Amino acid sequence: xxxxxxLNVIVGMSIDDLPDAIDHFTESGDRLARAMAYARLHQHDxxxxxxxxxxxxxxxxxxxxxxxxxxxxxxxxxxxxxAAFGAPGDVGPLQRILDEAEDDPSSPGDxxxxxxxxxxxxxxxGGPAHDLEGTLTxxxxxxxxxxxxxxxxxxxxxxxxxxxxAAPDDRAAVEDLLDQARSTRRELWKHGQHASxxxxxxxxxxxIDAAQRQDLRSAEExxxxxxxxxxxxxxxxxxxADLLEHVKQNKAQLDGLLSxxxxxxxxxxxxxxxxxxxxxxxxxxxxxxxxxxxxGQDLDLLRRGIDDLAGxxxxxxxxxxxxxxxxxxxxxxxxxxxxxGRDDTALTRAVDQLTAAVREAAQPGHPVxxxxxxxxxxxxxxxxxxRAACDVGLRGLSGYAYQVLLGSGTxxxxxxxxxxxxxxxxxxxxxxxxxxxxxxxxxxxxxxxxLLYAATVAATVPELLTAAGxxxxxxxxxxxxxxLDVAGARxxxxxxxxxxxxxxxxxxxxxxxxxxxxIRAALAALGRDALVHLLPEDGSGGGLxxxxxxxxxxxxxELPALTVPPAAGPCSAETGxxxxxxxxxxxxxxxxxAPDPGRPARLTLVAPGALAAVPWQAARAPDGRYAVREAAxxxxxxxxxxxxxxxxxxxxSGAEVTGDAxxxxxxxxxxxxxxxxxxxxxxxxxxxxxxxxxxxxAAATAYLVGGARTxxxxxxxxxxxxxxxxxxxxxxxxxxxxxxxxxxRRAQLWMLDGGRTAPHSMPDQxxxxxxxxxxxxxxxxxxxxxxxR
Length: 789
Known about the structure:
- By secondary structure, this protein is mainly alpha-helical.
- 59% of the residues lie in helices and 6% in strands.
- The protein has 34 helices and 9 strands.
- The strands form 2 sheets. Strands 3-2-1-4-5 form a 5-stranded mixed beta sheet, sandwiched between helices. It has a 4-stranded mixed beta sheet with strand order 6-7-8-9, with helices on both faces.
- α14 packs antiparallel against α15 (299-315).
């Protein structure tokens, strides 16, 4: 067997076969092959000694330049990656290995990538010859094929370097880090990689930002987002080991942050200490001890911290504005004492303290309200009070909604909305466990409305306050800075009172829950059979759907296969089969719909996150039929927006226009749409320009919010003349009196028909293309979706 073939065999070996291969190469004396086997083994066991053995064998081995280059590429990638994520050791040998790592003919760009990775490793070590910003610029300019073994590593490298540049005391650098993380998330989405990876990296940047701003609530939410994104990341993802290491590192960072934030500034040194000084000292000491106890799971330290915090509560006056935050931290510590020491009395005390924290915070706009309510809900769950957990969890969601309002027009609103939507999904699962489908639907729609507000409202709080007739309050507005920002809490209370007393439609949409009666009325007005909330599997439970039929009782449906969509692409057979198995098959069966082209199920889907990119109409049953034969599907971002559209009258002109999918939601909403129907071509580059990981940030949603009643949106460039054919036939069936969603379905069925005939009104140029057999392929007909009414 020649060297190249042997090395390729090693690359394809399973992890279980590698130890035997190493033994074989030891006996045969083939050190280059053994170096490759050790390098492959290191990809799995991550042990420094495994990589060291690979490098030692490589240095002593012979072999042709081509064979050595192949092994060098693997070794260089492993060593650079280890160095970038903090592994100890000298990175000097990297350059020597890299000198032999020629570009892989099957993956152009890899050699350049490895070169920058070498710089990156040195930059992260702080070597004087390495320029951090310059290395990041080079790294950002690298382009490697999506199927390259290094493609999955690229975002992690960028994030590691950006985090190194972002010094803890440098606000501008941390903001650059946040921008880099958001850009990376969009880049991962654009290239069809797992959305959870980008969400993890963005949450890591948010944690660094929260630490700098001394914001406990945001830090806790960021760490939770990191863990949830990790839960959604496939176990075989190339970067999952690095993600686990990041979680471990940031957990320690959060624990240390807890004491720093909650304690506030130290009391002034004074021989005559005041009661207020005693409270501050007890808070500082208690938080420090709790943070130390969390790191080492030390029950004795934890109890001492609890004693100090309880002492602060006793010493403080009843009107001490710090009490809600102190009670929240105390409740958190008592809950932890229950978990570590199985202390049921501690759990009872935790519920009492967290209940008091929520009560004393009083208003949903208070910075303590949402995190305290969420902590209380979890304490209720641990105490076996699941119904109470649902009730307080729902109340806590209103706190997230108010925090979104108080972040209007900023990236903070987007961050809080994402966290709020994740919490809403968790609360919905609690409610479903209690068979309370209505409460679950309310929770899900609250989360959707937070995202919708954050995506579409560009006005800042001062601008909103000025418009509400509060110029003085607007002039003095600054955002709340952490849970112990007493003055900030007072500003927030005045601002929320002003903004809710003269609520704009957007504020009403954010804060006004949608009842099932409203949803049913909207479905009846639109001629739809049901609204369906899809919820994919995440860290808190399996996939499911919450279904609100027009005339029947709402119900939920377990969808265990509803996970992350396949990476094969929306037009692939794999995606179509998965979409049927994961959702459409069980859903149509539950609704009692047999195949009946004359009476399709008319469904409106709320598909969050990556599920929005799935062409559900192309879900394919085992017998080969597509979902479009049984259902006319429409999409909406939230039930509240659907209800608005149901009663929205036509614009005076009744015009139809072509929109721009490349614009941000804010850009779209700067001027009235001025049309009933908007047709959106595919977005340039194949993905939304920003926020493409959720339909709340999609151009279609912005046009609906801006005044359109119907949007036809193309998800990808269609082949040949299929796009104009589909558009013509959709218009043809609309002229025959069909509603927009039904007209699109009929046009898609016409495309699927191998014996399709052109109507007399079709232009000759299109007629000549109408019989093309390839237009029955998914890529030709399934890319357009209906949104709105």
